[in-house]
Amino acid sequence: MTADTQATDTSDKPDYDSPWKEALERFFPEFLALLFPAIYDQIDWSVAPEFLDKELQQIGGNSPRGRRYADKLVRVRAKDGSDLYVLIHVEVQGDAESDFSARMFLYQTRLRDRYTIDVVSLAVLTDTSPSFRPKSFRHARWGCGIVFRFPMVKLLDYAEPERWAELEASDNVFALVVMAQIRAKVTDDAETLKRWKFRLMRLMYERGYERVLIEELFRIIDWMVRLPEKLEAEFRQELYELEEQYHMPYVTTVEQAGIEKGKILGMELGVQQGMELGVQQGEARTILRLLDQKFGPEVVQMHRERIEQAELEQLDTWLGRILSADSPETIFH
């Protein structure tokens, strides 16, 4: 295969951490409903979940860390009438790791010790090793023993035809995130991966999703499913044609505007430079939207000019920081 048909040949390696963090925070009820429905049914959703990322970082600061993709700590209220709050710790694990179960137990005990309330630990395994299926931590010596069990979902199982068909038929928007992650992990041929990426986008338009939802899902999927430059350009053109067909120029509006602006500024910019300008404007728009959601409109106005004038490389850096940032200063330092 040539460099253009090898998914792993792209120098810009997939960033699975950022999209999972955003997906869990934006679609947490949908995530539980799809992958952990029994737990979803136990939660009082009239009370908004509270995300405790900063607290989780403090808890795990000195723990042994393997390569993982994302974790979340969420406080929810049980609907059993007890008015009881429960902590849900979600660990998204991207690689087979021998001490994963021990780490899950460590988080469980530290969280219970700090908050003195029930803690539910959930594992989402996104790796491609069929045999890696940790569900418990066990330790025993001299008659003293510990057994800690936790619910686990292996995304690789959903790649089987029957389970995949369930995902494609699901009206749960998080199914699209799961499908994107699976295809990004198991597809070696980039041409095939491009077709899957386009298929996921087409599903959104066929279902008539609102503009904001399509943009949010696209950002997550685009983060997960990365293509070589040439194929990415082809995908964007196919997506533009799809949006024209549905009269919904949501995702590609900014990119196309950038291309047109590049042409107006002078043909010497060339098509490639015009496309880069569109991508740059798209990333700036994404950062402004995330800033507004996380820190409010005043912060957006404070940093708007700086963001809109930044180079693409700088925008990439800021975008990678924004989801885990505790303050605007930690993004732009």
TrEMBL record:
Q: What is the lineage of its organism?
A: Bacteria, Pseudomonadati, Pseudomonadota, Gammaproteobacteria, Chromatiales
Highest taxon above the source species: Bacteria
What is the protein's name according to its record? Answer: DUF4351 domain-containing protein
